[in-house]
Give the backbone structure.
Amino acid sequence: MRTRPLKVALLGCGVVGSEVARIMTTHADDLAARIGAPIELAGVAVRRPSKVREGIPAELITTDATALVKRGDIDVVVEVIGGIEPARTLITTAFEHGASVVSANKALLAQDGAALHAAADENDKDLYYEAAVAGAIPLIRPLRESLAGDKVNRVLGIVNGTTNFILDKMDSTGAGYQEALDEATALGYAEADPTADVEGFDAAAKAAILAGIAFHTRVRLDDVHREGMTEVTAADFASAKEMGCTIKLLAICERSADGASVTARVHPAMIPLSHPLASVRGAYNAVFVESDAAGQLMFYGPGAGGAPTASAVLGDLVAVCRNRLNGATGPGESAYAALTVSPMGDVVTRYHISLDVADKPGVLAQVATVFAEHGVSIDTVRQQGRQDGDGEASLVVVTHRASDASLSGTVEALRKLDTVRGVASIMRVEGE
Ligand code: HSE
């Protein structure tokens, strides 16, 4: 084994960074044996140097991240600060100064993955980012390496733990969205500003990364259709239950039937209780991958948290260090297929629509006509008159598969009917 250590610079020492440093120290011998050389923490860039950081020698702490990545003797830079800048500049500077990079930065990779890969390639360095998607769950390397000989057709997953916790709470207790969010905040699952999670931004970044790797095509955050889950109600869960379903915030990346294009989207959807993703509870993540030869694969585990995310970072660190010792690099960007990324309107899906309608002759026929005019075939219709004598009825329509454009056109036209008093809920149905 080589005795001269490989030098690691850590950018960020928060929940994840401190766990990375801790594991590097406590598992030092095992990591050295697995890599073939010891690794040494050579510097830690932080914003608040006065904070006490147990186990990290004070002389390693610096506020000058730029100087750290420019040192020239750093083998691997581990970036766990998140956000676009200064992370982007620090990563490219690290490549230019001879280091490979391990990053957990989903937002940056979803926005600028191509440019970062190009910078890594130009400098003959590695860019690994297993921790950017679903914390500890191995997904990037299984897709990038284990499934490199297969053809992935679909990636369907729960990739945000906060929203899964909230939806699971609503499902199991009948709570409304706000009540479940309050509990998630009190328990530390939701941040003080939960927007990135509940509006689907976090999941959309992960969907972009997964779609890009799965389909060997550049997919950026802007290509991902995104709907949050703040509008999901207790009534939606009651409807889902009647259909033998639950509701999950899903990231769905699909190849079209003709194979020429792909779509990526994040939105709440009903899925049958019999689907493996329906039993993913609490803050856990799970991703279902469908491919030609392997068939159906499911990856499950903790999608966030210091130690789980550090596990993924350390796995990358070992791989990158091994490559470095071998004078090699691992797989870079694979975007050769360059498939068209189609808009949401082209997605083929099913809708569950709940309408409040006038309870009088001809209304059902009128509603059915709107569906027919938009080329949308109805699977089931359930009507329930109200006991309160207000002359209204609830109408629940579940469609067969149709393009999202036809389905949303149908809903728009339904809203214009005098006899439709309101559209109580619209939810896509997936996983069948
Ligand atoms: N906030 C994310 C989640 C974890 O709730 O899953 C980091 O991506």
Q: What stands out?
A: The radius of gyration is 24 Å. The domain at 6-135+307-326 is CATH 3.40.50.720 (Rossmann fold).
